[in-house]
Design a protein that fits this description.
Oligomer: heterodimer
Strand content of chain B: 15-25%
Bound molecules: zinc ion
Radius of gyration of chain A: 29 Å
Distance between the termini of chain A: 88 Å
Strand content of chain A: under 5%
Largest sheet of chain B: 8 strands, mixed
Number of helices of chain A: 19
Shape of chain B: elongated
Number of strands of chain B: 26
Radius of gyration of chain B: 29 Å
Helix content of chain A: 55-70%
Strand order of the largest sheet of chain B: 3-4-6-5-9-12-10-11
Chain lengths: 326, 626
Amino acid sequence: MKTLIYITMLGMYCLLTNSALSQIVSENQLRDKISYWNESKSDIVKLQSVDQIQNVLDKLDDADRAVLSHLWLTKLSELEQVNAGQKHWLDNMLKSDLTLSGYLDDHPEKLLDLITISRSAKSTIRLLNVKHLATVLSQQWQQDAVEWTNWLEPQTSNYAALIHWLKTTSPEQAKRISAQWLNADLLPSLPDNHALTVLLTKNYSLELVGYLVQRRADEFTYQYYQQLPQTSDSFSAIAQLDLALGNSDLASQAILALATHYSHELSAQTLIKNALHKPSTQWFAITALEKVKDEEFRTALLKRYDSDASSLAKAAKKQLKKGESL
Amino acid sequence: MTRFSLQILCWGLAAFSISLSAVTFTYTNTETGPNNIPLGLVVPIPVDSLTPIPGFRTYNSLNLRHVQMTDASELFTQIQIGQTVNGRAIFAYSIGDADTVTINGDREGSALINGGIHAREWQTPEAVTGYMEYLFDNQGDQHLAQFLLENMHFVVIPVLNIDGFLQTQRFPNLVTDTSSTPRDGRMRRKNMRDVDEDIDTLGDNLNGIDLNRNNAPYWATSNSSSNDVSSLVYHGASPASEPETQALQQGATVAGEDRLRFYIDTHSFTQKYFASYTNNSRRNSVNDRIALIMRAANNFKYEYDPTPANVGIGLTDEYFANTYQAISYTLETEPAQSNAEYGGTGVSHSGFVLPNAEVPRMRTETTNATMAGLYAMTYPPSLTGLEIVRTRDQVSVFVGQFVKQGEERVLNVSSTEPLQGEEQYQLFVRFNKPMRQLENGEVVGFSNLSNPIGISLELTGTIDAQEIVYDMDTSQGEWLVDNEFSRYKTDTFSQPFSLPSNFDWSAHTLLSLSATAKDFTGQNLDADTSTIADWQNGSWSDYEDSNGNSNNDQGGTNKAFRLIDDGSDLFAPSAPPPTPTPTPAPTPSPTPSSSSGGGALPMGMLMLLIVIARRRLSAIGHKKGR
Ligand SMILES: [Zn+2]
């Protein structure tokens, strides 16, 4: 008899855990739940004692449990470090099979995972780890004890921590790091241009930009150059764009930036005119002429193309005239 | 801290200090904080570049890239099809040669391709611009791109919802509402009706019309759209109430309403092709087949999900399927669930933020898929010419070509000499389209839909009212990619063959080539070359199967080339098979014979002759295209 009750209980437990752990909500329900916890119950979301939070969670249905667990995991990820109780709770959450799925309004035919507690826990642990490693790196650096190659493995938490830390450095620190990297001939070992471009954003060095444009252009190179007008003065920006023109993958971006932001500068005008002559760049340069704001430069170019009947000249004149009306 | 992130911090502070501001959240890589949403991946910032990059381009530079293509190629033309709610010009690009006929003089179909209808779906202007760049970069490739440009008319709208797209690019890492249901800024979906361009303004962030719920015929007929202005799927005041929707419909006018046979709207994410069935079952079947082809291009990583006829939620694909009986899709690009598929945190809605590094691959994959679908919809494969060259002296013993006369094609035979037993010949079978995919110049298969050879050829004849078959071993033949093809690489198959020693030309009352081949997307040949296949009212007309039926869009074996013509009907029941006598037995060819003196040449010798033959043929020039 006892065994039977045991088996029945076990069966019910299995039934409960299996059927109830995946909840389906609509986008509006999710929004309402998030708002409810963040606004009406923000004092609970702020709770950081594991016992308190577990107490609250135990009384909730699965959907609310998923939302609150997720919000609390997010809160944990914002800490610099977690205590033993929190660490234990995090590890438990890694094993959770609690999920919240939904048919979002914009994808009504596809059931999407909106919140997966194990994944939220995993990303919290990852984010905390990156922060922790960044602190370790910072301390090592202050003690002049960094073994840089340990931090350059792509797609690792160590590399993410290096980036995370570099973003927090001062221009003065960035300058010292750049010098150390150059001394140690570290640039060829960089897995991509992420670290290099973060350093450059902190502390501009034409020498480092020279290295950057010699490397294969990747997403970080493009993003770096895109932010040039915000991060550099005209003089150094034009010098960097001049270097970029030597890398065929960066040429169209460089020409467009020169035409859009620096067409009033004589040095930029020279670079644009050179690009107009070069067969590999002339179409990009012609198209970019629409962006030339400098009246005098535009008039001079129009005059130059005036007697030219080629299709290139025709397009150039069209683009220059379009720019006039902008 | 960069000036950029300082700026964001300032916005954040401003949002905090002015109590009437909307709460904003910032997408970050690994930085955490009360109003941060870490993606675990670099947050893309749009880049001003005319060339494709690992990442997303600004609307401004995409637009300039489109202009550049129109300036640099006569095949590209810019047409304004309308303007946005905020008065920005919406452009379509008409792509293809100027005429409205194919290279064979037949009616040319058109395709309408739409991108950027939902603002936050940044992949779509990149994907659609990728199609344009593929056609632009490969316009003289003598293969797929040239074939498409010469035989199809494309109308491409890279960004329909320009106002919304600009709003998302203005705030590439900012959103409002909640962190799990982010809206406006980077996560704006709808157009910009009754919305200002600030993200801080309280009360207007949720406004706008969902342009993909704003369409007839199923406008406001389901609970997948809403009458609530703040809903993500607000359907607007009436069908096509929005100028952007009207512009899209204008795209069909530019494409030619009577020619429109293919429509695709591009979205992200969930990695699926959606389609809407209509009451035209043949159209639905072709719709299924073209979906299969597009999915095959990426090894079926995309799902296909057609919905039943007579119901809908106001999508553009429903409008084009029902209004024009066009083949019609809503493509949802990758990922299937979230950015966890690329190593990100997988936070809700992260599927809309494809990592920069994945963009080039996504562009290539969507281009390959869409081009394959368009290739199939341009026209079914058909035979155009047959030539038999005697290897020994390079004399053409049979030259036949189908030429257009009025509304049909007739076989024009310019020379015939009787074929001899044990003589080596080279057969050139010519088609109306490139028949095989190429990879680095080599003929390759296309997923599970075609293999590198994929053709069977035989001569079938009648002697004394009995059928006789002369097989050919097509593994010895090849699709031509160097210089003997007609117009497109792989539009010609070259096959060596010989006939048995007892072959007697004069004993035959009928001798024809029987060709069974599929184009690279698996479409069978048009079995009746004389009637011209065309897309009419949502199905293929005059696309006959092996029995002459043209009501099933299937195609079949083509026996239209007759070397000896008895005048019988093409689809007459064939003569009974031969009685089991040894005369004359079908022989696979070429036969490296060891016995019969003066028989088949040794293989090496034969190859040498083929090489010589090819040189000669190329020297005299066998280009037949127009
Ligand atoms: Zn969409």
